[in-house]
Give the backbone structure.
Amino acid sequence: MHAYALVVDPERQWAITGSNSTRHRVKNNLPGTPEFCPMIFRTRELNAYVDRNLAAQARALVADVPADLLARTAAFLLLKDSRSSFEIEGEDPPQDRIQRWGQVIGEAGRRSIDLDELLRLQRIVIGDARFVQLGLRTEGGFVGEHDRNTGTPIPDHISAKHHDLEELMNGLTAFDRLAAPELDPVIAAAVLAFGFVYIHPFEDGNGRLHRFLIHHVLAARGFNPSGIVFPVSAVILDRIDDYRRTLESYSQRLLPLIRWAATERGNVEVLNETADFYRFFDATPHAEFLFSCVARTVDVDLPAETAFLAGYDTFKKRVSALVDMPDRVMDLLFRFLRQNDGTLSKRAREREFASLTDAEAVEIQSIYNEILPTLSGARKDAP
């Protein structure tokens, strides 16, 4: 009896266990379904990232961190990610909206992803939906600008045709349910999240939901330490040009293959069949980019934030032994020192901290500068 031939060579591309087709004498190990099956090549870079076992490294980093310090680290990283996700979209929402979206990110991975869940998340993302059509698009979609004089679309990316959305979304959610659990978590997250953003199924909210799906896969697979959200959006914001280049790595190649016409409402109408472009794209660059973001979180953000809070606690304890002051004033003192390279400005000494003696001010500055190495590379705001 001859062995079944593999559809995908697992030495060259990521695949799943798959199932045998006795009629064709092949094993279908494609990582998806006919409705949605992007592919990822086994590059040297991706193999190196997988071999690093970043999940184990992250768990080791926090293993000896005191519970209260870890909880504060987690809270800040969560808020940081939520705020950054809005900033990527060019939005500056009120703090309560940032916190609400942060709560949603914190719950990522607890619910299975299907269309109803994505619609629920879209309602949360949009908030005020008076001027936005919720649900799957009922017309074309694109990312780009409009000509200032004529209003003609100038697309950077053209989204999937609205007639194809239901089938594509069924394929995407089937990937999350069936194929993703057999793939490396970061690779699965890249396929799901970037597949979603290329399809662009909604009129608004796609960007934040795209990044939520990264958190969904990582949390569902237990990739990040319990209670910790990797601030992927914050890293993306820091590397926004690389992020855009990653998105354009496919969008720019796709544009010449799509025939479209402008509509009277300044939208696009796609004239040819394009569904396969969103089902079967090469997601290798996207996986490499996402892995680099996750690696930076493990190598830099998580240890830096933990060190920052530990350093702040040391500062607070030693200053409290010298001068009794409320937490609010202590936070302000720390922030002023942080912003002025370890010294209190003349303005601060004459106003907010006029009650300090010269000797106390010198000692406080000395305490801060003594712990400064533990704060290197950490955030500049007070806890």
The two ends are 67 Å apart (CA to CA). The mean pLDDT is 91. The beta strands are 5-6, 19-21, 26-28, 142-146, 153-158, 260-262, 268-270. DSSP finds 15 helices and seven strands in the chain.
